[in-house]
Amino acid sequence: MNDPERRAVAHALYAAGREHDAEQPDRRARWRNVEPETAELLGVLVRAKRAQRVLEIGTSNGYSTIWLADAAEATGGTVLTVEIEPSRTALARENLARAGLDDRVELETGDAGQTLRALPDHAFQLTFLDGERPHYVGYWRDLVRTLAPGGLLAVDNAISHGNELVDFRAVVDGDERVTQAMVPIGAGLLLAVMPG
């Protein structure tokens, strides 16, 4: 992210998210932003793929969305982000506007599984998955279907919450179409590439 004002917005949003989460005893009430180094890597991956269409599952307050959208702006692309909580979608919309990126992002409030099922084949060059982990196995077929040839899937919390991803990892491991790698950055980022 080269724009210093936008970087300042992202930095302040991350700090506010950490403060917010520290006060929330219920995990579901936390914003649970990705770590800054993960956000930066996501931005690099979008640029490296020259992704025109990016999908994010799990918008929260829009912190990671800002990084994805900043990179999409550089590639001339756009981001579709899906969040189940309307209040979080509204908060993300405000934060994206503060970062000057609201024109790059389509925010959708709804169930990620239903959204995935309705999306067209091969629609995205990069998908970032950071939602409710128990649902990932059910998402797999549509995650693969909606990725373009050579598309990249990035899954957060693959190390920090690896115990919750055992079944999902087994599905990924069992799919011979996929080349994957674990990146030990932040909470752990699992990268899976579809055949080109």
Explain what you see.
The chain has 196 residues and is of the alpha/beta class. The chain contains 7 helices and 7 strands. It has a 7-stranded mixed sheet with strand order 3-2-1-4-5-7-6, with helices on both faces. Helix 4 links the parallel strand 2 (78-83) and strand 3 (105-109). The protein starts with a helix and ends with a strand. The model has no long low-confidence stretch (mean pLDDT 94).
Which keywords apply here?
single chain; 196 residues; alpha/beta; seven-stranded mixed sheet; 7 helices; 7 strands; globular
Short summary:
With 196 residues, this protein is an alpha/beta fold. Helices cover 43% and strands 21% of the residues.
Layout: helices, strands, pairs:
Blueprint (H helix, E strand, L loop, with lengths): L3 H19 L13 H14 L3 E5 L5 H13 L2 E6 L2 H13 L6 E5 L2 H7 L5 E6 L6 H11 E9 L10 H8 L5 E5 L5 E5 L3
Helix pairs in contact: 2-3, 5-6
Shape: globular
Strand content: 15-25%
Main pleated-sheet profile? 7 strands, mixed
Radius of gyration: 15 Å
